[in-house]
Amino acid sequence: MPRHVIGDPGRLRQVLLNLAGNALKFTAHGYVLLEVECRRRTRDGAELRLAVTDTGIGIPQDKLQHIFDKFTQVDTSTTRRYGGTGLGLAISRELIGLMGGTLQVESRLGEGSTFWAQLCLPGAPDVAGEPRPVVALDGLRALIVDDNAVNRRVLREMLARWHLRTDEMDSGEAALAALRAAVPANDPYQLAIVDFHMPGMDGEALGRAIKSEPPIADTALILLSSVAVRGEGRRFREAGFAAALTKPVRASQLLDALTETWIEHAGGDVATRVEHPRHPASETGRGHLRLNVLVVEDNPINQQVASGMLGKLGCHVEVAGSGVEALERLQRHSYDVVFMDCEMAEMDGFEATAEIRRRQGAMPRLPIVAMTAHAMDGDRERCLAAGMDDYVSKPLQGSALEAVVRRWAPASRDTARTTPPPAERRVPAGAVVDAGRLSELRSILAGDGDPTTFVGMIEAFLADTAMRLQTLHHGIARADAVATYQLAHALSGSLLNLGISRMAALAMTLEDRARRGDIRDAETLVEQLEDEFAGVRVALGPELKGAKR
After folding, report:
1. Which of 33, 172, 233, 485 is the one with CA 20 to 30 A from 387?
2. What beta strand segments (E) does 414-520 contain?
3. Which domains are present in the chain?
4. What pLDDT, in 10s, does the model give residues 170-225?
5. What is the DSSP pairing of strand 112-122 with strand 45-54?
6. Is the dihedral of CA 381, 385, 390, 394 positive or negative?
7. Is 62 exposed, middle or buried (0-12, 13-18, 19+ CB in 10 A)?
8. Dihedral of alpha carbons 260, 261, 264, 265, sign
9. For residues 175 and 225, is the Cβ–Cβ distance under 8 A?
């Protein structure tokens, strides 16, 4: 696989985001996997296959031939349950076609789908080269512990590139047995990479068990988690982990963690760093709340912003992408506070809150805080009437979040002093993007030590917004007020949280009119949004260029 090719990264990202977004939307259980494969090397470059596979609801065979047609969805219930306009796949196929490739699908109803793009791209000079270990990892024996076979495969392929010997186990109990058996065989494991969330014995319990048994306690441990690990440094250190990373893990991040862990281990200083240096714990942030918080939000940009701000306060944050997923998480885990977006497809925040209250019965009341982009009269009252306890407006502000969290935090868990809120920031007149807001988000998202997290969010925002604007034109042409409302709502949420207030105001105007079924002047508003977006692209350009230097 060539490390660099020449193509249109913005459009490819747009297509992959659409395919991955669809896969996540239609997959309640299992996994979503993005794969890039070099089918063959050509004289000038490579023929690539980019595939998104899911274990979701699947597509009936008689619908497959029309799935790329405009305004096509499997049935009308799909639109009601999951939202959408049926345009994303049509636009994606068109974009891949313009790049000289093809977009295809195979699917089985009830089992899942694979969408893949195949295209030839010319090669480019390899500037950085393949990441190589700075210490010898060749021949080290590593145990991969994860109940998900896809995750194990990804890790196995990464470790094979650095010539580690690997074995895999799908549970904590099986991992303990393998570690114990390796000692009398005179071939012990030097490293174990452990998933945090596993049924039965989870990763934390496994780490403690390993460190409590002298024959295997010398194994260096790295923890992987699907949710943010900010603020958990002491906890993971006590469990015996030398590094903790948040999935998905880049190869370079894993290599750095392996290298530093092995250097410390070989020098006799095991488990002195609990989080990888690129992912330091946020225990020196504004607060140290030690709360378990669930964020229920279907917009990826808003998920990142809320998680980052709460993580900076020392909270352990998990994210649910829908009301249904939130209910499932609440059955398995306990939380101190829930932040609930009000408007989501399938089950909105009001319905989810009502169901949570019904299930709670006489149990202690779980604080639920509404998150909404609307500041209209009656909104707060509607949230409280639905069973929510408090209310924060978008764009989210760190000081407002902190005040709400402290208001509802169990007294024994709040170990930090309250800090005064920052002075209100004034956005310069005529500013396309609030530079102060961007600086705040950059600081929050770089709290994990990886500046590419912020840049990735900006890139995803640009690609996603371009797709939504294009889709808005088609929805308006069909006089589809519901689809127009959904798209405008999603746009306004992202724009507000990124401090792009002028464009957000236009999106909110469109959203409000579409909510009332009035889209007579919607096309004009979308054109104004596109004009504003052109300025936003220019304003955000330095953020992307600065990260590449």
Report:
1. 485
2. none
3. 9-122 (3.30.565.10), 141-266 (3.40.50.2300), 292-417 (3.40.50.2300), 447-548 (1.20.120)
4. 999 999 999 999 999 999 999 999 999 899 999 999 999 999 999 999 999 999 98
5. antiparallel
6. negative
7. exposed
8. negative
9. no
